[in-house]
Amino acid sequence: MQENYEHYISRTIKKLYRKRLAAPVLYLIFTAILFGTLPISSVLFPSSLKRLSDLDSFFHKNDRFVSVSLENLHFTGYTRTRFHRTSGYFYYAYNPDQNECCIVLLSPSTCEEGLPNIEQTSVYAKILPSDASYETLLSNLSKDLDWTDAGIRSKVSACYLSEPDFHYYSGMFLFVLLSFGAAFAALSIFLFLLYMAKPHVSPPCQKLRYFGNPKNMLALAEEELATLPQLATEDMFITEHFFIETSRYGVALIPIQEIVWIYKHSTLQKLFWYHFSISYTLHIVANRHVCIRCPKNMKSDIDGIIDYLSEANHDILVGFSEENRRLVHGK
């Protein structure tokens, strides 16, 4: 028994945080995959598109969000409608010096709901691939301009620019959300590794700071548990000076002389309408408003713990009652 309980509390704390380490690590991997596959950061930091002829190369590099200055925009006469409202106006931008032509979908506010011509404007836009509506637009536009279908397709890119599809605020929200989550996960990983390396700085042991030095008290509890626990259940122990819990729900450590109130609480477990068991939770309240919950234990184990603690410290209030609650909390 002495060998089994050697550094048992520290080993349990390390095991507990080793298991908890998996969740933030998986979240960081998931976030990295999202940042790698979705152009989230490019929404906040769009690339500058200098030449319209570079539209296809930007798209294939997954650089979908751009800032661009456009000149000589001409309204095609066609619009895009969503949910029974006009969401954009199709323009074509032609640069005769560089023999470049591009289709641009502008927001109603940018083009003042369909100005015939726009000499110059700067917009943030998303590069979209050719789709059925875009193909139809090119076919109709070639007829309107008295061009051949092949002729217009040789001049324009297979992609087009869409200002209404550049969702800056939704991209910012997603970026901030994922970044905050990644930072929290990274901090959790750092703390869990710290707790594994130095169990006395973990939250269960830091509750001991109200009653003394956590490192020294953990060492004393480890020594007493390794020597001979005075009472032991499956995951609860009583030594000469400490109550100790080491379950899959967490680790708790409290000096017996600091305990002021103990009681058990029963919960009826049920699945739909079928009641199949009753679980018991041990509640321990100590000085300095330190509270410990030991869930899902056997009634006989909790009764044995309560009896032993009440004998070890006669000042402990036993059982839940309004009178005991007022004596402890003063309300």
Provide key terms for this protein.
single chain, 331 residues, alpha+beta, five-stranded mixed barrel, four-stranded antiparallel β-sheet, 11 helices, 39% helix, elongated
Can you describe this structure?
The chain is α+β, with helices and mostly antiparallel strands. It contains eleven helices and 14 strands. It has helices at residues 8-20, 22-37, 40-44, 55-60, 132-144, 149-155, 168-197, 203-206, 214-227, 299-312, 322-329; strands at 47-49, 65-82, 85-95, 100-106, 117-129, 159-162, 231-232, 236-238, 242-247, 250-255, 259-271, 274-286, 290-297, 317-318. The two termini are 45 Å apart.
Work out the helix count: 11
Strand percentage lies at: 25-35%
- Percentage of residues assigned to helices: 25-40%
The general outline is: elongated
Supply Rg.
34 Å
Short overview:
This protein has 331 residues and is of the alpha+beta class.
Write the layout of secondary structure elements.
Blueprint (H helix, E strand, L loop, with lengths): L7 H13 L1 H16 L2 H5 L2 E3 L5 H6 L4 E18 L2 E11 L4 E7 L10 E13 L2 H13 L4 H7 L3 E4 L5 H30 L5 H4 L7 H14 L3 E2 L3 E3 L3 E6 L2 E6 L3 E13 L2 E13 L3 E8 L1 H14 L4 E2 L3 H8 L2
Parallel strand pairs: 1-2, 4-6, 11-14
Antiparallel strand pairs: 2-3, 2-5, 3-4, 5-6, 7-8, 8-9, 9-10, 11-12, 12-13
